[in-house]
């Protein structure tokens, strides 16, 4: 049986993979997740917007402005920055911007959940930088771990911790985005698996530990 294709020869599965990659991209999670946690932390629209947008803007919007501008100027391959070497500036932008957001949260006496979220995100970024550029893997220095998988997996854990076991169904989105990255040839299965484990251990677990009680 032949696979249905469009006029450009793109298969239906690749079209679905491209849609999943865009809809479940890291910047989407990082923009939406803080609003959900902000609502859980404060129980008010004002609180959700105030604290959620601080994390969302510094963790997602500002870095994406840098990334999109760089992609348009040809500094890296696309707004997904699939080439490992092109990730230097985007990672620096993410870390610097989110660091500013964390400082604002601290100075503004933000709810514990919001600070825990921002710190978990920051830890995931730092670990990703170490793996991408410094950690020796298979005799070479650096490895293109999947940020799509890491952010999705960490977000799934954080949402489950905050809202209860039914949110574990978000794991379906983690599997979908992982499949999409492999289907598009942007990552290997090993890179997706490693990214998911990184998100669980460095993103989700610290958030859970930090929200168990007052610091």
TrEMBL record:
Keyword terms: Membrane, Transmembrane, Transmembrane helix
Highest taxon listed in the record's lineage: Bacteria
Ranges that cross the membrane: 23-42, 48-68, 88-108, 114-137, 149-177, 189-209
Protein name (record): PAP2 superfamily protein
